[in-house]
Specification:
This protein is of the alpha+beta class. It is built from 41 helices and 17 strands. The longest helix has 37 residues, at 59-95.
Length: 1313
């Protein structure tokens, strides 16, 4: 069965046409007449090839080109032949593996991303960010994707990673997951929504973006199929893979497959046995001729022979352990070895090697199918007939019943037997009609002796008729199929005679039995016997064709089996049968000599050809046509080549290199790891052809290093495995003991070790670019581990840690330079892309500072990425990573210092740079107060001190000038102008606008804490400007987060003291202005509390609030600064309240002075009373004195409303109203006391009643406490006025008061209102 090829009749012509098309251009290249048609591939006869002459008008010129072309074609032809020969060896490894299996525990490799796929992914993420997708996302997720897109997807390091073949979709996903984990963890907690839910939701959206419009089910199915092919490959898939690897065409594979009989396991096992015999002979030849490899010591020569023989011994044991039958290993006898291998394998005594008859066990399956019976005429048509069948010694089966008129069945019986020549009995019965009949009547029988070679189709057999049956011509049509067991290789009848067995020339039934992979026996059987009558163990025999032997009658074609001291002659009645027997025995003996049929020898001699090579397998008779076709197409030389004559070390190096190239170019991110199928084939090749393990791994290391040096991504763990194997071999520390080491292996190992060291140091130096974003995962850590292994002098002695540290330190120092150089170049390219018009122009100091800030951002980003992605790998060398970071920052410091030197002395635009760097460094435990950090502090400390000095002077002058020009209007009316007020220059160098939120400083917007205050009346413009500047200055210094504790406390203390002094000055200037304002104001009831008075109170309120924030130190003893300014503010507020109450008292005194004119006994009082009485007779005269009372009440109410509305401190208002009410009652009480002996004038009484009652009620409404309202002074005044009211009622009859009374009545109030 030839699976890969098409049928013989259909494919021969097609193959010939294909071969002509493919190989015709190469025919002219083979001009050497010494090459035969066979050795040149069988494409063209050598005579025809040599007759091809290209025309050449100028031989001297064209001959050179022709020669070069010929050499090129000859090299190509030699390479093609080498690959074809290599493919033959590989095919045999795939067809019958007995050493290796496809590993199932290898790590699964991810699909790698190509350049086109990377561009597609970029476009998908850009579409999402542009809002062109249907994916719903919140702002946080969009920001995360934007950052991922800018940092990872667009990174040139990722492009290099894709180019190196080491970037997979899984890498992209893992980087994004790591990128968002910190973001998600920093999000505020939401009830009912866990962080894990958010994380999984974001990852699902990421997958949707990454996948785009692709159907996830199709992608999953494709991934599943690819993953399956990545794990286990069938033989057909392996053939196809190595056709691609070696460049073998399909028709060449078909020819080789058929000619090599790869579908015949017996032929492949025989081929292996011949190869192993050849390797044993080669080992003996090397030992005899002393043609050893050059070893590092002379003692290894004898060890080398032992290694060769033990390796063959191991292969024989592996082959012996292979089951003979597919169903199990019941026929393998591992104790049985080949006779001539006793020098290698301890075989014991000779009788232990001999087979006994009980060792040979055969099991046959027989199928007996009874179709019909013919010639049954004597029975009535309705009589019942049936058949029985049995294999002698087994159970008996019966067919269904049938009528005699139609005796057909088609019944099959299945039997098993251990007899190579079983007896199958089939009997025909009819049912007996007699009453006393005990059994049915037998009509006839047939006894058959089938063999596995018997025809399988149904045939008519004449039956032996019973005595009482009148039908003498009974025939039965049946089929007997006897299957050949796996351990039976051939069977048939032969004539035989031998010295020890089969001593008489006689025809016997022979079976060639395979007892184990290395043990075959020629057994003769008798009919109905399970054990062989005689047997011949074929170990050590050689089979060949022979001429007819005289004196032996019987048999037409002869062959023999020869061994020292014994010859067995066999004869067959048929030439074809003889060929099949010789071929089967040739496979069994494992002999070197290949028997050639005499007819084939005659054909070869007629053609002038040579006999095939010794190891060529003889095709089965049915496959002779394939061998002829293979010879016709020039494949015979590859098939018949003896594997022992080839340098398999160089062949394996070639196939391994080509396989690695194929692997690196497939769709998987393999990182140099072979697929399971490739590992299986290479393992099998090495074991079967004796490729030294050290040579294999040295070649592998060499190939991997070449790819890595050319930019391919190679897994350092893979390099470590191969290097460790080679190191243990070269240094004599192999797990299986000391082995031979050649000089070439040692020298090549040292060369590769040096190359590997340089590669690893280069990768560590370029760790950001060789392992971008920490991918592949764990690769950098494995690289460091491998470097430590490479630096070891031998496999046992550990390298001193200081030596490893020195190497890594050197690498990281160079890495700092590499990283900063590339970062600077990237920053320049980025800047040129943003502003192409400025390319080549002179750079201004401001532009240089801006570029430095951008560069600082990139520097911080690099340090953060190093910490996030690479710190774990350098965990053992964390101090070296700190040194690397300091070196990296020191390179940046050079550019930073250069940019700061060109800045103007009094410009403060560089502070954002300090804050940016300081915020990053102070959060890093290792870099905080490090070398660069201290340099940064030393650089900016003078600037901070000068800045604070200038700001202190500026603020002091702004207070002075501000209060001189202060209008004391509330800040609400100045809101539109205040934000535009910059800190004044005051004849000083340039003072910057204070940045509240660095790094950008607000120039036209007010601080956020002032917004709420602006909504209501507030302090003056000068005070608000002062508080804003002080707060902004302290915020600015605080946001600097000065890392040095002592200097930071000094700055804080100084600013607190400065704020205390400034606020103290503001309070004092406000107190002076308050007093001056009151002195200039009116003393009559026309006085209204001006807005400026309220503003001054609010200044005190703000000063108190700001002092708690601006003047308080956290250290206990420094709190006195705050307490001192607080005390000053309280005292000042008390004085201001006292002054304002005094002002109110003066106005009340003016009202009482007017009432004094009505005192009893004065001339003015008598005259006024007379005039009013006289005039009232004629006209309605107004109530004298009511306008004074109303004016005063209006003054009080308006003043209360203004103060309540404009002053922002309730405590101050309550305190003011308490003192105002108390002082008013005291003043009225004093005035009444002075007139204790006088009766109040009617009008005096009415005015006082009105004033006292209104004042009491108004202050009560303003929240003055009852204890204050109902004071002793109030009671005195109330009692006096009540008494005066009663007296007036008696004297005037009550009409004079006109309803004004001290009783609790609101009538007059309602009238007045």
């Amino acid at each position: 069965m030839l699976d890969p090829s098409s049928s013989e009749e259909e494919s021969e012509d097609v193959v010939e046409e294909e071969s002509k098309e493919v190989m015709a251009p190469q025919a002219g290249a083979r001009l050497s007449p010494s090459r035969t048609s066979e050795s040149s591939g069988g494409l063209q006869p050598s005579s025809r090839s040599s007759s091809v002459r290209p025309s050449s008008p100028s031989p001297s010129v064209v001959s050179e080109k022709e020669k070069e072309e010929m050499e090129k074609l000859q090299k190509e032809e030699e390479e093609r032949k080498k690959k074809l020969q290599l493919y033959v060896f590989v095919m045999r490894c795939i067809a019958y593996p007995f050493n290796a299996k496809q590993p199932t525990d290898m790590a699964r490799r991810q699909q790698k991303i190509s350049k086109q796929q990377l561009q597609t992914v970029k476009d998908r993420f850009q579409a999402f960010l542009n809002g062109e997708t249907q994916i719903v996302a919140d702002e946080a997720f969009i920001n995360a994707v934007q950052s991922y897109y800018e940092v990872f997807i667009k990174s040139d390091r990722v492009s290099r990673m894709v180019q190196s073949g080491g970037c997979s979709a899984n890498d992209s996903r893992e980087v994004f997951k790591k990128h968002i984990e910190k973001r998600v963890r920093s999000l505020p907690e939401i009830d009912g929504l866990s962080k894990e839910t958010v994380l999984s939701s974001w990852m699902a959206k990421f997958d949707a973006i990454y996948r785009g419009e692709e159907d996830p089910r199709k992608q999953q199915a494709r991934m599943t199929a690819s993953a399956a092919s990545e794990l286990i490959l069938s033989k057909e898939q392996l053939y196809e893979m190595f056709q691609q690897i070696l460049g073998i065409k399909k028709f060449e594979h078909q020819l080789l497959y058929n000619a090599c009989q790869l579908d015949n396991p017996d032929e492949q096992a025989a081929q292996i046995r011949r190869e192993l015999d050849g390797r044993l002979q080669m080992a003996d030849q090397i030992a005899r001729e002393r043609k050893f490899l050059k070893f590092v010591s002379k003692e290894m020569e004898s060890m080398f022979i032992e290694e060769l023989k033990s390796s063959v011994n191991l292969l024989m044991a592996n082959l012996e352990s292979m089951p003979v039958s597919k169903g199990g290993s019941e026929f393998k006898l591992q104790k049985l070895k080949r006779g001539h291998n006793t020098s290698i394998i301890d075989m014991g005594e000779e009788n232990e090697n001999q087979l006994s008859k009980s060792d040979v066990v055969l099991s046959f399956t027989l199928e007996v199918v009874i179709m019909e019976v013919q010639g049954l005429k004597s029975l009535a048509p309705n009589r019942i007939v049936y058949c029985t069948m049995e294999v002698e010694g087994g159970e008996k089966l019966q067919t269904d019943q049938a009528e005699a008129s139609k005796p057909t069945w088609g019944t099959q019986g299945d039997f098993t037997s251990t007899h190579p020549l079983p007896a199958v009995k089939v009997k025909l019965f009819t049912e007996s009609t007699g009453v006393l009949a005990l059994e049915d009547k037998e009509l006839g029988r047939v006894v058959l002796h089938p063999t596995p070679n018997s025809p399988k189709q149904s045939e008519l057999h004449k039956m032996t008729v019973s005595k009482n049956c009148p039908d003498h011509d009974l025939k039965i049509k049946l089929a007997v199929r006897m299957d050949k067991p796996q351990n039976m290789k051939h069977c048939g009848y032969l004539w035989a005679i031998g010295k020890n067995v089969w001593k008489r020339w006689k025809k016997r039934f022979f079976v060639l039995v395979q007892v184990s992979q290395y043990t075959f026996a020629m057994c003769s059987y008798r009919e109905k016997k399970a054990e062989p009558q005689e047997l011949l163990q074929l170990d050590g025999y050689t089979v060949d064709y022979t001429d007819p032997q005289p004196g032996l009658e019987g048999g037409r074609t002869f062959f023999n089996a020869v061994k020292e001291g014994d010859t067995v002659i066999f004869a067959s009645d048929d030439e074809q049968d003889r060929i099949l027997w010789v071929q089967a025995m040739y496979r069994a003996t494992g002999q070197s000599h290949k028997p050639v049929p005499p007819t084939q020898v005659q054909k070869l001699n007629a053609k002038g050809g040579n006999a095939p090579q010794m190891d060529a397998p003889i095709s089965q008779f049915s496959g002779l046509k394939d061998a002829d076709r293979a010879q016709k197409h020039g494949m015979d030389e590859f098939i018949s080549a003896n594997p022992c004559n080839f340098d398999h070390a160089s062949l394996f190096e070639m196939v391994q290199r080509l396989t690695l190239d194929h692997r690196l170019n497939d769709s998987y991110s393999c990182l140099g790891w072979f697929s399971p199928g490739q590992v299986f084939v290479l393992d099998e090749y090495c074991a079967r052809n004796g490729v030294r393990g050290c040579h294999r791994h040295l070649c592998y290391l060499n190939d991997l290093l070449e790819r890595a040096e050319n930019g391919a991504m190679i897994d350092p763990t893979l390099l470590h495995y191969s290097f460790a194997f080679c190191a243990s071999h070269v240094h004599g520390n192999r797990p299986d003991g000391i082995g031979t080491v050649t000089v070439e292996e040692k020298e090549r190992f040292e060369e590769i070790k040096e190359r590997l060291r340089l590669l690893l140091e280069n990768q560590i130096t370029h760790f950001r670019y060789c392992f971008p974003f920490g991918r592949p995962e764990g690769a950098l850590k494995a690289t460091l581990s491998l470097l430590e292994r490479v630096l070891m002098k031998d496999i046992v002695t550990q390298v001193p840690q200081e030596e490893v540290k020195t190497v890594i330190r050197k690498c990281l120092e160079q890495a700092a330079l590499v990283n900063y150089t590339r970062l600077s170049e990237y920053a320049k390219v980025e800047e040129n892309q943003k502003d192409p018009e400025n390319v080549g122009r002179l750079i201004t100091p401001a532009k240089k500072l801006e570029d430095t800030v951008r560069l600082a951002e990139l520097v911080i980003e690099v340090l953060q990425q190093n910490e996030e992605h690479h710190a774990e790998a350098f965990a053992w060398w964390s101090d070296l990573m700190v040194e690397h970071a300091e070196t990296f920052l020191s390179l940046f410091a050079v550019d930073m210092d250069a940019a700061l030197e060109v800045q103007s002395p009094d410009t403060w635009d560089s502070f954002p740079l300090f804050q940016l760097l300081n915020d990053s460094l102070r959060s890093d435990y290792n870099l905080c107060n490090g070398k660069f950090h201290k340099h940064l502090q030393d650089l900016f400390a003078p600037l901070v001190v000068r800045y604070v000095d200038l700001m202190e002077s500026s603020i002091a002058q702004s207070i002075h000038r501000g209060f001189e020009r202060e209008s004391w209007e509330p800040v609400k009316s100045l809101t539109s102008n205040l934000p535009n007020v910059n800190l004044p220059n005051v004849n000083l160098p340039k003072i910057p606008n204070l940045p509240v939120n660095l790094p950008q400083m607000p120039s036209i917007s007010t601080p956020s804490w002032m917004a709420a205050i602006y909504d209501s009346d507030n302090g003056s413009g000068t005070s608000e400007d002062l508080f804003w500047k002080l707060d902004a200055l302290q915020t600015f210094i605080r946001d600097l987060h000065w890392p040095e504790e002592e200097f930071g406390k000094h700055l804080e203390q100084r600013l607190k003291l400065m704020s205390s002094d400034m606020i103290e000055s503001c309070v004092k200037r406000t107190r002076i202005a308050f007093e001056a304002k009151l002195q200039k104001s009116s003393r009559s009831t026309d006085f209204r509390v001006p807005q400026s008075i309220c503003t001054m109170f609010n200044v005190m309120v703000d000063a108190k609030a700001q002092s708690a924030k601006l003047c308080a130190m956290e250290m206990g003893q420094e709190k006195q600064y705050h307490s001192q300014i607080d005390t000053l503010i309280e005292e000042t507020v008390k004085e201001m309240i006292t002054l304002l109450v005094a002002k109110f008292a003066v106005i009340l005194e003016g009202v009482l002075a007017k009432l004094s004119r009505y005192d009893e006994g004065t001339l003015f009082s008598s005259f006024l009373s007379f005039t009013v009485k006289a005039a009232s007779k004629y006209v309605e005269v107004p109530k004298p004195g009511m306008d004074v009372a109303d004016a005063y009440v209006t003054f009080v109410r308006h003043s209360q409303d203004i103060l309540r509305d404009k002053v922002n401190e309730e405590i101050y208002i309550e305190r003011l109203f308490d003192q105002w009410y108390t002082s008013s009652m005291n003043l009225i009480c004093t005035w009444l006391t002075d007139r204790m002996d006088l009766q109040l004038h009617l009008y005096q009484l009415k005015i006082l009643i009105r004033i006292v009652k209104k004042k009491y009620r108004d202050f009560r409404l303003q929240g003055v406490l009852d204890s204050t309202l109902n004071s002793k002074m109030y009671d005195t005044v109330r009692n006096r006025l009540t008494l005066e009211e009663a007296t007036s009622s008696v004297s005037e009859g009550g009409a004079g008061l006109q309803g004004i009374t001290m009783r609790d009545s609101d009538e007059e109030d309602e009238d007045d209102d």
